[in-house]
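Worked example

This section walks through a single chain of length 81. The input is the sequence exactly as stored; nothing has been trimmed or padded.
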Amino acid sequence: MRYLIQEVRKALPLDLSPPEVCTDECRGCSIKLLEYIAMELESWECRLDDGDIPNFGDLKKLARSSNKIYLALLKNGLVGS
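Given that input, the structure is written out below as tokens.
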């Protein structure tokens, strides 16, 4: 899970400010998507620090959410292919 979190943090532009995120053409709210995934990652980091052990379903859910958000950001031109 920590490896997945690390890879998601590398792939997504979580450090962009709202003016940098909002583009002329928008398909889905990139700001809300980035806020959601950032909260999910922080939540899992805290849970892992507290000794929680994720199961395969947890990994799959986070991976699926991250992938969908990446694809939405790709359509909005915020990440490379």
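What to look for: The chain has a mean pLDDT of 90.
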